[in-house]
Design brief:
The chain has about 500 residues and is an alpha/beta fold. It folds into 2 domains: about 200 residues, Rossmann fold (3-Layer(aba) Sandwich), CATH 3.40.50; about 270 residues, Aminopeptidase, CATH 3.40.630.10. Helix content is about 25%, strand content about 25%. The chain has 12 helices and 22 strands. Helix 10 crosses helix 12.
Amino acid sequence: MSQDKRILLLSDGAGGIAADLDVLYPSLVDKLNFVNDAHGPDVLGQYDCVITAVTMGSNLAGLDYAAVREYARGGGQVISCLCEYAADRGLHLSKTHVGDRVRPGLRVEAESDVTAGLGRGDELWWYGTVSSAPDQLYSNQMVQRQVMGAREAEGLRILATSTLNGGAVMLEECVGSGRIVAMDLLSPIRPFYNSWGSTNKYLFVGNVVNGAVRYGRHYPRKLCYGDFVRAMHALALGTDTLATVPEGVCSDGRMMWSFEIGDRANPTVYLGAAVHGWEWENCFGLLRLAELLAAQPQLDGLDTGRLHFRIMPVQNPYGYDHFTRQNARGVDLNRNFDHHWEELPEIQDVVVPWDYNYKGARPASEPETQIIQGIIDREKPRCVIDFHTADFIMMAPTNCDRELIEGIHQDIKARLRNRFIAQKPYGGAYQQWNMDALDFATVDCPYLVHYAGAAGVPASFLIEMSGNRDDTHGLVMVTDMVVEICLAAMHRCLAGGS
C-alpha cells in the first residue's frame, strides 16, 4: 500500500477535475488559482505531485510553467493538460470535433508505469461531448484534444496517440530527476456510470500519483463463452501449475469449466463469478488471477503453494453469453441453492421463469447450482468468494467466522484506498472503487454464499462492485480490484491456518 502523497492542483477553475481529485485523494489535494496565487518553486516544492489544468486559454499567460519545469527538474512529478504543455514546447494543440457517433480513442504506444495495465497497441475510448452531457445520452459531437507534431527524442516519449489522427494524447518528458506527464484531461467529462469516453479518465493520473494499477489488465473485447473457455485452456497449456477441469453440463448443454491450482490436501479457496450472467466483468478478473497465480507462486508475498484453488470464472454460461441474469431455463441461480429455499418469498403477481428473482421449481433444481454445491460439499473450502456487479458492498451470511470476515474486509479497504473513481449506478454520487460497506445477513437465503456458510466455510462472502458495462472499457480497474480482493482473503486465510 502506497504512502499518502500531497498533491497540488494548479488551475484557473477546473471544477470537475477538482471535485474528482477530492474523491480520489481526500484531504490530500490543495488547490491554487494560478491567475491570482503565487506558485513559484518554493510553493510547488511542498508537494509530491503537481497537476496543472488551464481551462481558459486567455489565462494561459498567468501560469508560470517555468516554475513547473523547475519543480520537475528537482524530482517532482507533474501531470499537465495538453494546452499548457503544448504552449511551453511550442507545439500545436488540436481540438478535434467529430460527429456521426464516432468514438475517439487513444492507442497505447509505449509500456511504462504510467500505462500500467495496458500493452502497446491497446486502445481505450477517450473523449468528451460538446454539450458535456453523458455520452450515452448524447452520443454525437464528440471531442478530443491532441498535440500535433510531437516527435520522440531523448527524454521525450509519446505514450498514447489518437485513433482519429495519430496526434499525441499522452506524452512523458523526463526533466532533471523528475518528469512531466502531459495528457488530455479536459476532453473526457466526469467518469459517470458506464461512460464510454471517460470511465478511465483518472487511470493514468492514478498510475503517476500512486501506482494505482498493480495487477489489472485490459482485455480488448468481451469473449463469448466458447472463446473464454479456449482462453482458459490456452492459459493452462502454458504452465505446469494450472489445470482446467470439466465440472459438468449446464442448463444450455455446454460444459462448465474451472481452473485448479495446487495440492488438494491443502485448504481450498473457491472463487466464482457471473452466477448472474449479465454481471460478467469479474470473470476477466478471475482469469487474470489464475494467470498471475500460475506465473508467480509467491504473488504478493504469499506462499500460494499452501492453498488449493478452484476458480470458476463463469458460473452461468448461458446468462454470460446472452446478457441475462438467469440461466437457460430462466432461473436466478443465486436464489436456487438448497438453503432455506422454501422460505424465500416470490413477490410477483404471477410467478414464471425469467422473473427477476425466479428461484426455480425446487431447491437446487438447476445443473449449475448442483455443480457448485458439489464442489463446496467435496472440497470443504476455507474461503468462498462469489463476485457480482452492481455497487460496492461486501456481504456475508449468518454462518461465518465474523472476525475473519471483518479482517478480510479491513484488508480490502486498505488495498483499494485512493486508487480508482466511479459514479454510483444510475446517476448516483461519485465514489472511490472500494468496499467500505460490509453487511452481515440476518436472514438465511438460498444464495451461494449462504449455502457455503451453512456447509462450514468460515470465510464465505459475496462481493458487489462496479460493473454491468456494455464493453470492456472498464476492465483494467475491474481486474485489478478482483485480484486485490482475492489476495486480501488469501492472506487472512493463511494467517488463520487450516
